[in-house]
């Protein structure tokens, strides 16, 4: 137990956002911000809506979800071989973990279908540089903010 951690302000628990009800650990309409940073890409596309529905229940009205994840045509996507493709924009890595590559349209529809309002939803392009191997690779991420009305 850390003396700096206040159990009145912070509760640590483990859950599967696609199955476990957040309301068992978090009161309804009590959360100011949720960060989904490289979270949804690891979840099967058929189950992503379950995560957003679960989060919606605990998010306060007027508050938001901050999202950042892989965008379509990111270098990581282009490196996959054809045998790694599980579905449209959905791939499996050699270690068995999965990765989905988002489009603005798909993400917008996903959130809006669960009742969220779109505030920002845009691609962010970066370049990763490996100086040792003299390698430059284009990175594409989707960065978004959605709000519960």
From TrEMBL:
- Give GO BP annotations, semicolon-separated: methylation; tRNA processing
Q: Which InterPro entries match?
A: METTL2/6/8-like, SAM-dependent_MTases_sf
Q: Name one GO molecular function term.
A: RNA methyltransferase activity
Q: Which domain of life is it from?
A: Eukaryota
What UniProt keywords apply to this chain's record, in alphabetical order?
Answer: Methyltransferase, S-adenosyl-L-methionine, Transferase, tRNA processing
Matches recorded under CDD domains: AdoMet_MTases
What the entry lists under Pfam families is as follows:
Methyltransf_23
Q: Which family is annotated?
A: Belongs to the methyltransferase superfamily. METL family.
| UniProt protein name | Methyltransferase-like 6
Species of origin: Pelecanus crispus
């Amino acid at each position: 137990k850390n003396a700096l951690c206040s159990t009145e302000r912070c509760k640590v628990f483990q859950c599967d956002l696609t199955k476990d009800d957040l309301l068992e650990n978090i009161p309804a309409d009590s959360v100011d911000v949720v960060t989904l940073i490289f979270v949804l890409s690891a979840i099967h596309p058929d189950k992503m809506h379950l995560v957003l529905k679960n989060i919606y229940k605990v998010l306060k009205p007027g508050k938001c979800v901050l999202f950042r994840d892989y965008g379509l045509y990111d270098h990581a996507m282009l490196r996959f071989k054809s045998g790694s493709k599980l579905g449209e924009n959905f791939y499996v890595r050699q270690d068995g973990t999965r990765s989905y590559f988002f489009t603005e349209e798909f993400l917008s529809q996903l959130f809006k279908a669960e009742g969220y309002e779109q505030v920002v939803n845009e691609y962010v392009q970066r370049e990763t540089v490996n100086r040792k191997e003299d390698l430059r690779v284009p990175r594409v991420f989707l960065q978004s903010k959605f709000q519960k009305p």
